[in-house]
Design a protein that fits this description.
262 residues, alpha/beta, Nitrilase/N-carbamoyl-D-aminoacid amidohydrolase, 6-stranded mixed sheet, 6 helices, 21% helix, binds acetamide
Amino acid sequence: MKVGFVQNHPQFGDIQDNLSRIEEMLEGKRADLFVLPELFSTGYRFKKMDEAHQYAELVPGGVVTSFLTSLAKKINTYFIAGLVEIDDDRIYNSSITVGPEGFIGRYRKIHLFDTEKACFHAGTEAPPVFNLNGTKVGVMICFDWRFPEITRSLALNGAEIIAHPSNLVLPHCPQAMITRCLENRVYAITANRVGNENRVPDEVLHFIGQSQVVDPDGNILIRASEIEEEVQIVEIDLGKAREKFINSKNDIFKDRRPDLYS
Ligand code: ACM
């Protein structure tokens, strides 16, 4: 199976332009699954919830979900990508999963980072694992990486790949995901953005790029630059993620001792 990421540089608030750019970047690129960054079509730094509200959409039915659904049909792929969702006047930092068969599901970020707490409501449902044409894909968003319980619970629920739309500003995540993959013998696709946002005086946000795919042995199969927009694709062997033995005596799931810790 081929998986990939899109590392983009959204212009804040220009949804149509940002979507066109994604279509342009994917021209001629083919994979079974693409992960796009958190909030890839709007930009990241909303000043307050009222502003996020202006860019929010119903899921499914909104412009970004519709765009990705038709692109998924056109190029026969699955997309997992972040957007601002509104539901019953509540605003979420969500990610959607769509494919050739249409809209598949959503995840509403449960661990909000820093100023996100003033702009979004936290999700109230556990991160999902979707069966995408026989492949089990778990979804988390950016700062969720800092809570190892998320990757663990996705893996215990059968995820073979963790899709990880992100807008990373701290430096640690790309290396930390290597450990998440080793701990759980899963693949992880982190899709980050690049560029700066200077929407609040004296608060420049710099996004670190380095989108990557890591395998269940902790190898970085592909990693993007810190500054360029990029699409990268790699062939993966799902059998590796289905095998939890690390030698003839240790199965890292069966050897767990939840009777002694939780
Ligand atoms: C983050 O969760 N966007 C850092």
